[in-house]
Amino acid sequence: MMATTHALLGVLVGSAALFVAPEFAPVAVSAGLVGGLFPDFDLYSGHRKTLHFPVYYSLAAAAALAVAALAPTALTVALGVFFLSAAIHSASDAFGGGLELKPWLGESNRAVYDHYRGRWIRPRRWIRYDGAPEDFALGVFLALPSLVLHEGAVQTLVVVAVLISGVYSLFRKRLVFAAEWLVDRIPTSMLAYIPDRFVRDLV
């Protein structure tokens, strides 16, 4: 799924604080947003393995949320929501396409790495690839409650995320073709600065 889809889900997770602890809603929404995005910070280094921990984030979320329930503070709530959003992101990547440059081809059997079991989880391909029409539709669906629940900066952020998602979805496959064209023209000495998975699939 797109990073924006994960971010929108994180915002929605954090928005739950409006119903149980509204005084912590701003920090919860921020933590949900960051937690939803955080695993994808490994995009250029061991993507879906380096910062994706479907099991360990889930355990951390359970512990942090328990602490937050017993001792609610801005910090404990933020940690609980952060880990929960990161866990959902990591686990939900298994429902998408495989870890390949052209996931719509369905050739990869690697979706996300399970460090606990020491193996890759296979892709279910319910969402065929990041930026697929169903990915965009899911993002819009996740955005709607947040648009109703929030106003101001959060509402603007959600709208911008949906717009970015739409543009990315529109040009998703063309971006790969552009990358292929670019790599063909990059000096060999520069290939060392490009993530291995891109070089491996493109050259």
Structure write-up:
Helix content is 61%, strand content 3%. It is built from eight helices and two strands. Strands 1-2 form a two-stranded antiparallel ribbon. The two termini are 25 Å apart. The mean pLDDT is 92.
Structural features:
two-stranded antiparallel sheet; mainly alpha; globular; 3% strand; 203 residues; single chain
Summarize the structure.
With 203 residues, the chain is an all-alpha fold. The chain has helices spanning 3-15, 17-20, 25-37, 54-70, 74-92, 133-149, 153-185, 196-202, and strands at 112-114, 119-121.
The global form is: globular
Residue share in β-strands: under 5%
Radius of gyration: 18 Å
Name the strands of the widest sheet in spatial order: 1-2
Helix content: 55-70%
User: Runs with pLDDT <50, length 5+?
Assistant: none
Topology:
Elements lengths: L2 H13 L1 H4 L4 H13 L16 H17 L3 H19 L19 E3 L4 E3 L11 H17 L3 H33 L10 H7 L1
Antiparallel strand pairs: 1-2
Helix pairs in contact: 1-3, 1-5, 1-6, 1-7, 3-5, 4-5, 6-7
